[in-house]
Amino acid sequence: MHHNNITVLASTLLGLILSQTVSAQTASPERSQEITERGKHVMSFNLGQTQHIFSKTETGGLQQVIVKDPRNSRQIELIRQHLKQISKEFAHGDFSKPEAIHGQAMPGLATLRAAKPGQLHVQYKELPDGAEIAYTAQDQSLITAIHQWFDAQLSDHGPDAVPGMHHGIEHHKHKQQLYPG
After folding, report:
1. CA–CA separation, 114 vs 108, rounded Å?
2. φ/ψ (deg, to 5) at 26
């Protein structure tokens, strides 16, 4: 029994270490440019004037998009429109917009798309300088898929996206406990 607990602990630690390694990888300059070009057709706001923040939580994750200049009311409105729309789509299993940007093989996407009604909770919220979407699930495979999906976005979006709390970005208060990896 004791040996099984050590094996489970070792496997969990290895998974956390590997997830840190994956999230630290960035896409090639060619891939980043391709993502930026595709993103222009899907996201109405200007990537260069905004920052994506992806925070993993114990129950899923928190995606925030905020403006770099809080006086930029036009970009704030565009962020809100986009995130409000995609949150509705995601809540119904429609992940076609991230697929259009990142491709069909985007990590985590197939699992998220296959979630049964009620398994994945998606909640939109306006922020003073943008908006956020909270993703929550009880099923560990969905939580893992959210984390993989966040890692893929961090890699693909390059300097326009950062992991939450790792780069000194202060988040708006949120009820979920942030997950360090």
Report:
1. 10
2. -120, 155
Record the pTM.
Answer: 0.73
Alpha-carbon span 104 to 93, nearest angstrom:
14
**Residues 15/22, Cβ–Cβ less than 8 Å:** no
CA 177 to chain centroid: 15
The residue to which tokens 């909770």 are assigned? 121
| Segment-wise mean pLDDT, segments of 10 residues, the chain, 181 residues | 43 37 55 61 79 95 96 96 95 88 83 94 97 97 96 79 59 44 46
Alpha-carbon distance 149 to 99, whole Å?
11
Is-contact 100 40, C-beta < 8 A? no
Q: Identify the DSSP state of 178.
A: B
